[in-house]
Amino acid sequence: MRRFFDSDLWYSFSRNPVTIVSAIVAILLVAGAVLAPVVAPHNPFDLASLNLMDAFKPPAWTADGDREYPLGTDDQGRDLFSAILYGARISLLVGAAAVLFSTSLGVVVGLAAGYFGGFVDSALMRIADIQLTFPSILVALLVDGVVRAALPREVHDQIALYVVIFAIGISNWPQFARTVRGSTLVERNKEYVQAARVIGISSPRIIFSHVLPNVTGPVLVIATLNLGFAVLAEATLSFLGVGVPPTQPSLGTLIRIGNDFLFSGEWWITIFPGAALVLLVLSVNLLGDWLRDALNPRLR
Questions:
Q1: How far apart are the first and last CA of the chain?
Q2: How distant is the alpha carbon of residue 17 from its chain centre?
Q3: Which of 8, 228, 251, 293 has the most CB atoms at less than 10 Å from its CB?
Q4: How far is CA 184 from CA 124, 142, 198, 225, in A?
Q5: Is the separation of the CB atoms in 66 and 125 below 8 Å?
C-alpha cells in the first residue's frame, strides 16, 4: 500500500482536482447502486408495495411534495430516488459485464493476430475492419433484433439482460483487438519472447504468460473509457424499448418512461434519471482520460 502512495500514478491523481472530484462522484454512484437494497427507502421492484394513488408526486421540496419520496414518484407510484439507485445498479451491471466480454474477446483476438501474423492476422483484422464500418449502436440493435427473432417470445423478458450484455459486448471488441494487436506486434520481436521460443515454451504460454502482462496498460485505459460508453449504450437501447424489461427498469428505461410525461408537467420523472446517467458516464470518462494520460510515458 505504501508503495502505491509513493507511485507516479498516485502523485498524478492527487494533483488533479477534476480527477479527484470525478472519483468521488463515481464512488458515491457505484456505492449507492451496489448498496441499493440497503440505502434505498423503497423497493421499486416489489409490485405489491406500489400504490397508484402515489403516482406523479413531485419532489419533496415543492409545495405538493411528500418527504417519503425525496425526488418524487413516477407514473406507477414508484419512489424515484429508489428507482434511480436500482436502475443504476442494472446499468452498471450491464456495462461492466459487456466491457468484460468485449475485453476478453478483443484481447484474445488481438493477441492471436499480433503473435501469429500472416493469414490469421489478415482474417481477424478484416473482420474487425468490417465491423468498425458500422456504428456500435447499430450493431447492438442488429444483434438484439436477431436474437429476439430467433427465440420464443415468452422467454424474451427472462433473457433480455443477457441479450443486451452480448449485443453491447460484441459491438465493441474491435477496439481492444486492434490496440492489443499493435502492442503484440512490438512485443513478439523482443528478446524475452525470442528466448522463450528458443527454450521450447509453447506459443499459448508465451502469449498469456509473457506477452499479455506487457499489453494490459492500454487495455485498462480502453476498458475504463468503454464502461461509460457501455452504460450509455444500454441506456440508449432501453430508451428505444429494446433493452431490459420494464419490470426491471434501468436508467434508460426510467428516462424513456419520464419522456412520455415531460411536457405534461411531470419533469422530475425524466430529469433526475437523466442527471444520474450524465454524472455516472461523465465521471467514468474523466477517470478514463486521466488514466490514459497517467499511463502515457510521453506526458510525464
A1: 22
A2: 24
A3: 251
A4: 14, 31, 19, 21
A5: no
The predicted pLDDT at position 102 comes to 94
Q: What is the CA radius of gyration of the chain?
A: 23
- Contact indicator for 59, 271 with CB cutoff of 8 Å: no
pLDDT digits (tens, 9 = 90+) for 77-115: 888 898 899 989 989 999 999 999 999 999 999 999 999
Distance CA 141, CA 166 (A): 11
Joined together, the cell numbers standing for residue 169 give: 459486448
- Cβ atoms of residues 193 and 158 within 8 Å: no
268: left (phi over 0), alpha (psi -120 to 50) or beta: alpha
176 three-state secondary structure: helix
Which sequence spans correspond to the domains of the chain?
2-42+73-299
Residues making up the chain, counted from first to last: 300
**Which region, left, alpha or beta, applies to residue 60 given φ > 0 means left and ψ of -120 to 50 means alpha?**
alpha
**Sequence letter at residue 254:** L
H-state helical runs in 188-250: 191-198, 203-206, 216-239
pTM: 0.88
Amino acid at the residue 268: W
Angstrom distance (rounded) from CA 180 to CA 159: 31
Who contacts 224 (Cβ-Cβ below 8 Å, separation ≥6)? 284, 287, 288, 291
Superfamily of domain 2-42+73-299: MetI-like (1.10.3720.10)
Q: How far is CA 26 from CA 31, 94, 197, 221, 276, in A?
A: 8, 16, 44, 16, 11
Query: How many CA atoms lie less than 13 Å away from 295 in the CB half-sphere?
Result: 16
Q: What is the pLDDT of residue 3?
A: 67
Which residues, other chains included, contact 238 with Cβ-Cβ below 8 Å and sequence gap of 6+?
164, 244, 249, 250, 251, 252, 253, 255, 256
Q: How far are the Cα atoms of 131, 237, 293 from residue 138, in angstroms, in the given order? A: 10, 10, 30
